[in-house]
Specification:
The structure is a single chain. By secondary structure, the protein is of the alpha/beta class. Strand 15 and strand 16 form a beta hairpin. Helix 9 packs antiparallel against helix 17 and helix 31 runs antiparallel to helix 32. The protein is globular, with a radius of gyration of 29 Å. It catalyses: a (3S)-3-hydroxyacyl-CoA + NAD(+) = a 3-oxoacyl-CoA + NADH + H(+).
Length: 828
């Protein structure tokens, strides 16, 4: 095996012990606060989004809003009055209905909507006594929020948590005038929009908040809601919006000083700097410039430092844009505007000097070109230390953002780690300010800052007196961070398990450039993918084979997982295409057989195997997960067998495993027509359906009832390890090979009829029909009588034969090449 070595058993800490069964509602031995019902006050974009996410994780939600002040024309035509519930609940009902129309969907599945009930502030406040958590989410106005909380308190039951969703208003001022008991149960819960997809939740206690409430809500939000929680201080705009807003305004002022365009700034401040593709001005268009000004003005109104007030005072051009309605996507125009010319969509950019739209202008610089395709450290170094316009701009923005973040440690957050975490989870930065500083070299960056006349905070100067200054340091399996009080440990919650930390502590057993084996402790081994894009290839199979050898003698079970952007988008498509173009059919046959053998080894391993997928889990990635004894999937898992999009069918056991999942739905001994179940498998695979969530994967049939969905991706590996240990504790035995009933030739004919009808209506192309026919043949079990029992190897052989036949066709290879070139499917 290339580039790998395996440590002896003596070098490993394999501490086998039994683990008690997980008690529902309990993780890490600490019981979660019991919250099963919640009320959300305010059914606007944020309120409805929060309600949707609470329903996603199984809470029953009462979504309320005001009673409308006037009847609509439609209500009058229907003869409705202000006494009718349909009128009185209209705003809440509209917020609920909007959830089904939003894209991307705020719901894990449409069925989650059934958990949301609507009401209004006049008729239903008494029902607040029935809930465990009240979330106020009305307009960002201190007076309005205080008035509503005054109305809430008479119906509040002691023990019920009350929180406000605000992006920056003072929590302490909001709760002035409420009873001491109410104040003890009150805190800020700042969800980021959209609540389902942005993981950050800032918890903001005020001086009287009960510390137990804060800790209970932190753990509940992490474990049940899947949030990355940061506890912030009750200061204007808290953490993420304080740093993020400052950074955006610094970016604009630097742009103005250097005479750069909107497009140039976005070319520099996106992925080149480790930020989202939306960069600066596309981000502002999504957020809404009016919303951004409100957030900036909140700091201006609530800080005393004149320099800080000036830093947050929005430029006149932003105010003019808001006055003209150029606020972003919600009004169709902002820094960018989409238009149609000659039937084609075009995007125009705003000239901030004239406030006129013009065609976008491409921007490039040597420092940007030098970093293309490189890792983040290389990209940043080639950009920030370059003496071209992009480099000078990026350095100035970065320098000022780092200095501001450093100045705010202790004021807005206790630890630099909290600021880093907030910026990554809330703004999508690849690195927080202090992680970035570490990556570039603390001393190197500090010396340049000083050379340019900047003054560093005292606590950063103290760090510079360390022999090897770094904000973060690994000490065994622990990571410590340097703050105002020196180094302090970053404590992981009991539900979290970090491969990065374990590997830094020397727990790697072996591996190569594409995969590693890591000792998770307690007799559990991890197989980690880390190839480019986590594409599956022979290197990964080689490490997996070593994992199975170790399982036989040294470990009790295996977790298949990683900490990349996605679990795996499938096999190495480029390799397959190259072999096909060279007509190396025997080599393709060997590669497919090898991968099929790999998934069978997972399925029939002597020890339990649990897969921990997340993000994109497509094609071969799903085939690996499907072969495991259990799947513990992240809530945000986009799972599917997508091979038909490139002219192929799943041939690593995916077609066979999906068919098995359908057949398993029929209890043994029950005679039931399998055709509808096989039709579902055919439709799902032929249409390359991908789940929109972990729960949607269960609805589609990719997950079994015994598989689990974990809300928090940071807890995924720990939960997968827990599942392995539970299988061990209950006396695991490998599954016995089974015979599979198939629908045979009659079922194949049924599916072929459907293909013919679609082809006849020109709903599919001729090559689509060829691919679908090959898939139908495999799912039917070939040319055998209905009800024939076949074994898994027989179906694997059919998969492989279909795959080899299809990859030999020029139209399939054209689809493969098009996908590799454009990232989009070709319908030829």
């Amino acid at each position: 095996m290339n580039e790998h070595s395996f440590k002896s058993g003596a070098a490993r800490d394999v501490n086998r012990r039994n683990v008690d069964a997980v008690i529902p509602g309990q993780r890490g031995g600490i019981r979660l606060r019991r919250i099963t019902r919640a009320a959300v006050l305010g059914a606007g974009v944020m309120g409805a989004g929060i309600a949707a996410h609470l329903a996603n994780v199984g809470l029953r939600v009462l979504l309320m809003d005001m009673v409308p002040k006037a009847l609509t024309d439609e209500e009058q035509a229907r003869g409705l009055t202000f006494e009718d519930r349909a009128v009185r609940n209209r705003l809440a009902e509209a917020g609920k209905a909007r959830l089904l129309q939003e894209s991307p969907s705020p719901l894990y599945t449409p069925q989650a909507l059934d958990l949301i009930e609507t009401g209004n502030f006049e008729d239903d406040l008494h029902r607040l006594s029935e809930v465990d958590w009240i979330i106020e989410a009305i307009v960002e106005d201190l007076g309005a929020k205080r008035a509503l909380l005054e109305r809430v308190e008479p119906y509040w039951r002691e023990g019920t948590v009350v929180s406000t969703n605000t992006s920056g208003i003072s929590i302490a001022r909001m709760v002035e005038g409420r009873s001491p008991a109410f104040r003890r149960h009150f805190l800020g819960t700042h969800f980021f929009n959209p609540p389902r997809y942005l993981p950050l939740l800032e918890l903001i206690p005020h001086p009287e908040t009960d510390p137990k409430i804060v800790e209970d809500m932190r753990r509940f939000a992490e474990v049940k809601l899947g949030k990355g929680v940061v506890v912030a201080k009750d200061t204007p705009n808290f953490i993420a919006n304080r740093i993020g807003t400052y950074g955006l305004l610094v970016t604009y002022r630097t742009m103005e000083a250097m005479g750069l365009s909107v497009e140039a700034v976005d070319a520099i401040t996106g992925e080149a700097m480790g930020r989202p593709k939306s960069a600066t001005f596309r981000t502002l268009d999504v957020v809404g410039l009016d919303t951004f000004l409100h957030v900036a003005n909140n700091v201006v109104a609530n800080v005393s430092d004149p320099d800080e007030k000036a830093a947050f005072r929005a430029p006149d051009v932003f105010r003019t844009m808001v006055e003209r309605g150029l606020v972003g996507q919600k009004r169709g125009a902002g820094f960018y505007k989409q238009v149609r010319e000659n039937g084609e969509k075009k995007i125009l950019a705003l000239d901030l000097k004239t406030l006129e739209y013009r065609p976008r202008q491409a921007f490039s610089a040597p420092s940007l070109v030098a970093g293309q395709g490189k890792d983040l450290k290389t990209r940043l170094e080639r950009l920030l230390f370059a003496d071209d316009v992009a480099g000078r701009f990026a350095w100035e923005v970065t320098k000022k953002t780092l200095l501001y973040a450093a100045a705010k440690v202790g004021e807005i957050a206790d630890s630099p780690a909290d600021i880093d975490r907030a910026m990554k989870l809330g703004f999508g930065w690849s690195l927080g300010p202090f992680e970035l500083w570490d990556l570039l070299g603390v001393r190197r960056v500090a010396e340049r800052m000083k050379k340019e006349g900047e003054t560093l905070p005292d606590w950063v100067e103290a760090l510079l007196r360390e022999p090897e200054p770094a904000f973060y340091r690994q000490e065994g399996t622990e990571v410590v961070v340097f703050g105002r009080g020196g180094y302090a440990p970053i404590v992981l919650p009991p539900e979290a398990l970090s491969l990065k930390r374990l590997k830094a502590a020397g727990r790697t057993i072996g591996g190569n450039r594409s995969a590693s084996l890591v000792d998770l402790g307690d007799g559990v081994l991890a197989l980690e993918f880390h190839s480019k894009g986590n594409a599956l290839g022979t290197d990964i199979v080689a490490v997996a084979n070593e994992a199975f050898r170790l399982l036989d003698d040294h470990f009790d079970g295996l977790v298949v997982g990683n900490e990349g952007k996605n679990f795996s988008a499938g096999a190495n498509l480029m390799l397959m295409l190259m072999e096909a173009e060279d007509e190396n059919w025997d080599e393709i046959d060997r590669l497919v057989r090898e991968f099929q053998a790999f998934t069978l080894r997972i399925k029939y391993a002597r020890r339990p195997v649990v897969a921990a997928p997340f993000g994109m889990t497509l094609g071969g990635g799903y085939e690996v997960a499907a072969a495991a004894d259990r799947i513990v999937a992240a809530a945000e898992t986009y799972m599917g067998l997508v091979e038909t999009a490139v002219g192929l069918i799943p041939a690593g056991g995916g077609t066979k495993e999906f068919l098995l999942r359908m057949v398993e739905r029929v209890p043994e001994g029950v005679k039931l027509d399998l055709q509808p179940l096989v039709n579902h498998a055919f439709e799902t695979i032929a249409m390359a359906k991908v789940s929109t969530s972990g729960e949607d994967a269960r609805r589609l049939g990719y997950l079994r009832p015994t598989d689990a969905v974990v809300p928090n991706r940071e807890h995924l590996l720990a939960e997968a390890k827990r599942a392995v240990l539970e299988l061990v504790r209950t006396g695991y035995t490998p599954p016995a090979p089974r015979k599979i009933p198939v629908v045979g030739e009659p079922g194949y004919a049924t599916m072929r009829l459907g293909i013919y009808q679609l082809q006849n209506r020109r709903a599919i192309t001729d090559h689509d029909a060829v691919i679908a026919d090959k898939l139908a043949f495999v799912l039917a079990g070939g040319r055998v009588p209905k009800g024939t029992l076949v074994d898994e190897q027989y179906l694997l052989d059919l998969e492989r034969e279909a795959f080899l036949s299809l990859i030999g066709m020029p139209k399939t290879r054209a689809r493969m090449a098009h996908m590799l070139k454009t990232g989009k499917p070709l319908r030829n």
